[in-house]
Amino acid sequence: MANEQSVIAVIRAARPTFRNAHDKAAFAVHAAFLASGFVLHATGPSASVDDALSSSSTDEVGIDHWNEFEDSYAFVYSQPEKSSKKVLVKCLAMNNKLLIDTLRDGDNEPLYLELRQLTSFLYINNPSVEDYIVEDGGTNYNTQFKNLGKLVGELNKAILTKYTGSPMPNSSTQTSSSEKKGLNDQPNVERQPDYPYQPAGSFPSG
After folding, report:
1. Which stretches are tagged as biased composition: Polar residues (predicted)?
2. Which of 20, 40, 88, 123 has the fewest C-beta atoms lying within 10 Å of its C-beta?
3. What is the Rg, in whole angstroms, of the alpha carbon atoms belonging to the chain?
């Protein structure tokens, strides 16, 4: 299961170029999938076509064109050690939010996670991308993110454990270095939104 250290290791190995905070957040999502044992089969335009999920190709690809679109990202993965079924991940940037939808081949419903504006009551555990990203973090990837342990923990709970079947790690293993220093602590308010969530994007049918 992914943790802060394994995600940063993936990001450093890939050495991506980021344009903005949404790029950083979307790539952290991608890195969490790789750190959880998934392999990448398509990204960018090739992952956005209608038959991306049903394609028979099992070739592993690099990250070329992953952020070619201005406000959306797409990735197709599989986890060969556990299942041949592919998983389509779509991220949509909206203002300071990143909407994350995932669909596994054969599943009827997608899974989702929303990183959005922090409010007094709604989605208190899903803050905006700025709560995970340092805009002027320099060239060191480690300093371009903050609270990464929280982000990885949310991904593990909402999405990754559903596909890997792995139990949630000990809470101590999901605590980021910045959290250990007491930075950006937020109260844990449990309340569901007063309106239904609408998925970020449509997935291919069938």
Report:
1. 163-177
2. 20
3. 16
Reported as type and span, the H/E element at residue 156 is none
Q: How confident is the model at residue 14 (pLDDT cuts 50, 70, 90)?
A: very high
Helix (H, G, I), strand (E, B) or coil at 40: strand
C-alpha dihedral (141, 71, 174, 189), degrees to nearest 10: 130
- Angle at alpha carbon of residue 163, lines to 159 and 166, rounded to 5°: 95
Per-residue pLDDT at 132 = 82
Is the distance from CB of 35 to CB of 10 less than 8 angstroms? yes
pLDDT digits (tens, 9 = 90+) for 24-55: 999 999 999 999 999 999 999 999 999 999 99
Is residue 137 a contact partner of residue 123, using CB atoms and an 8 Å limit?
A: no
The mean pLDDT value for 60-77 works out to: 97
Boundaries of every domain in the chain: 4-180
